[in-house]
Design goal:
heterodimer, A: mainly alpha, 4 helices, 67% helix, flat, disordered C terminus, B: mainly alpha, Four Helix Bundle (Hemerythrin (Met), subunit A), two-stranded antiparallel sheet
Chain lengths: 118, 227
């Protein structure tokens, strides 16, 4: 195999392909059966991470790359977790401030089919 | 140095030892074609862009006092009189996964130097991508014309819903559209035999971009449509 060339048995791809279909079906079913609360959020995140992991590791061949490339690509996005954490805290603070000054929202929405008036 | 495993001055040690070797001595760090390293770095930058979009969406959705429109209802489709939640989005997800599978096979056929099959699989991938964009156009027009969703408001709830929907899915749709063109161009060049002497890494590089588009959709599907 030449340098940097990624050739693997087709069987691997078919397996991952099938798994991606299965996990997508599962995550759709989370909505279809209308799971709510922490169960819903946990299932969504688990299926999302499984799908993302398989796509990156197998379809994008990251599992067979050398560590120098893996760390250079997968390392930097870790700082994004800090951004997400900060913005989650900020969102919480903002909504509490708004509720404090403006109170609960009392607007009634009429549902589908009506034109936007905002 | 005697115990270092090297081939032509290049470390072949696996794991941490290999990581240090690869970075430590004034040499090429990534033992992949330069185009592949560049594509990975581009995708890294794109990761930051999409994460910023989704983080902005999270911040706005969590800080609004107004109820966020329920995606399950907004994106429901009526099939034979029955309302099925998120049906179109589920089909779009399956279309994109199917295209990722055909792309993975195209990369494999490329390295086997089977030009006809490589190009055929790439065209199939591009076709699925085009179908995805078509369905997205249908979704957008349904939301804009029938549901009255605008970037500044909608009849279902929080007015920011529209701006995030159009920005996030629009940017993703743009990536898919560019990918379709990219795939078609490379497939034609494969068919012509342009890569016979240079090798077929280009198919894998195109594949990286395409799989990334699918990857982003996994996150959009989870956070925008299912949450």
């Amino acid at each position: 195999m030449a340098e940097g060339q990624q050739e693997h048995p087709l069987k691997v791809y078919f397996w991952i392909w099938t798994l991606l279909f299965v996990f997508s079906t599962f995550s759709y079913l989370v909505d279809y059966f209308n799971f709510q609360g922490y169960l819903r959020w946990t299932l969504i995140i688990v299926f999302m991470l499984l799908k993302a992991g398989f796509i990156i590791a197998i379809f994008m061949h990251m599992a067979w790359e050398r560590l120098a490339l893996i760390y250079a690509i997968l390392g930097p996005p870790v700082v994004l977790l800090l951004l997400i954490g900060l913005m989650a805290v900020e969102g919480d603070y903002t909504v509490l401030t708004r509720l404090n000054y403006f109170g609960e929202d009392t607007t009634e929405y009429v549902g589908h089919g009506e034109a936007a008036e905002h | 140095m005697a115990h270092d495993a090297t081939v032509a001055g290049q470390s072949t040690d696996p794991g941490m030892k290999g990581l240090v070797d690869d970075w430590a001595s004034d040499r090429q760090t990534f033992h992949v074609p330069w185009g592949k390293a560049m594509m990975w770095i581009f995708l890294l930058s794109d990761t930051f862009i999409f994460t910023c979009f989704l983080t902005g969406y999270m911040n706005v959705r969590s800080s609004t006092r107004v109820q966020w429109p329920l995606p399950s209802e907004v994106f429901a489709l009526d099939v034979a009189g029955v309302t099925v939640p998120l049906l179109l989005i589920a089909i779009m997800t399956f279309v994109l996964i199917t295209s990722s599978g055909t792309m993975a096979l195209a990369v494999n056929m490329g390295y086997r130097r089977d030009r006809a099959k490589t190009a055929a699989l790439m065209f199939v991938t591009a076709a699925f991508g085009a179908i995805f964009v078509g369905m997205q156009a249908f979704e957008w027009s349904k939301l804009i014309i029938e549901e009255g969703v605008r970037p500044w408001g909608n009849p279902m709830g929080a007015p920011q819903f529209g701006s995030f929907f159009f920005m996030i899915t629009g940017f993703h749709g743009l990536h898919v559209s560019i990918g379709v063109i990219y795939l078609a161009v490379v497939a034609i060049k494969v068919l012509r035999g342009d890569y016979e002497s240079r090798g077929y890494e280009i198919v894998e590089i195109t594949g990286l971009y395409w799989h990334f588009v699918d990857l982003v959709w996994v996150f959009i599907f989870a956070f925008f449509y299912l949450w």
